[in-house]
Amino acid sequence: MQEYWDLFIEWFKPETIIKYGGFALLLFVVFAETGLLIGFFLPGDSLLFTAGLLCARGDLDVDIYTVIGGLIVAGVIGNIFGYYFGRRAGPALFTKDDNLIFKKRYVEITHSFYSRHGGKTLIMGRFLPIIRTFAPILAGVIRIGFGKFMVYNIVGCTLWVLSLTLSAYVLGKQFPWIEDYLGTIVISLIIVTMIPIITTWRKERKLKKES
User: Fold this and answer.
1) Cα dihedral: 120, 124, 125, 129 (round 10)
2) Can you give the pLDDT at residue 206?
């Protein structure tokens, strides 16, 4: 059993995804994480950072401009897909039963962010796992205007891609030895981005107990 689990973890490492799937799989994973209900477990932040580093050392068969442009387009289209899925699913998403993939608390956490930050959740949520997946879906459920949604969508995706992919590319060019610490960087990214999610989830649990 442990062997299968180790294999699963290995296949979902950012380096493995890019190494075996190339640029095409990289774009699909970004699209899936930002647009498909089942995409929340995919390694978005670490994948973008890894793509920048690998591009800096020439391990991707496209240049950095193509990588950045492609990632922005994939992320924007993914959010549009999620938005229209949310419009179609409607409020029923809030009453959907938990299963192996979907957990109602993911929607509750995202809704809590919307309550505090409004449409800016679509920008801030780009940098947060789970919320990155559910924010556009919830925007469709609560029927945020499509024009307003697209502004937040494009701005958020552009900032997300540039801050992670371009910064990694520049670091990789200036400090080639940084790739030796890629595993540590990826783990650090996961921990840092999960802190707001855990904090929000704990607040939601506390409010539920009090009510």
Assistant:
1) -170
2) 65
- For residue 20, what are the contacts with CB-CB under 8 A and spacing of at least 6? none
The CB-side HSE value for 155 (13 A sphere, CA atoms) comes to: 13
In 3D space, the residue among 48, 68, 24, 43 whose CA is nearest the CA of residue 158 turns out to be 68
Q: Which amino acid belongs to residue 28?
A: F
Closest CA to 138 of 164, 117, 169, 167: 117
Low-confidence ranges of the chain (pLDDT < 70): 1-12, 39-41, 94, 98-103, 179-183, 185-187, 189-190, 192-194, 196-211
d(CA 174, CA 178): 9
CA of residue 87 relative to chain centroid, distance: 20
The full set of domain ranges for the chain reads 2-210
Q: What is the pLDDT of residue 132?
A: 86
Residue 117 tokens, joined: 């930050």
Axis-axis angle for helices 146-161, 64-89 (nearest 10) = 140
- For the chain, give the longest Cα–Cα distance: 55
What are the structure tokens assigned to 132, written together?
Answer: 């990155």
Which amino acid is present at 36?
Answer: L
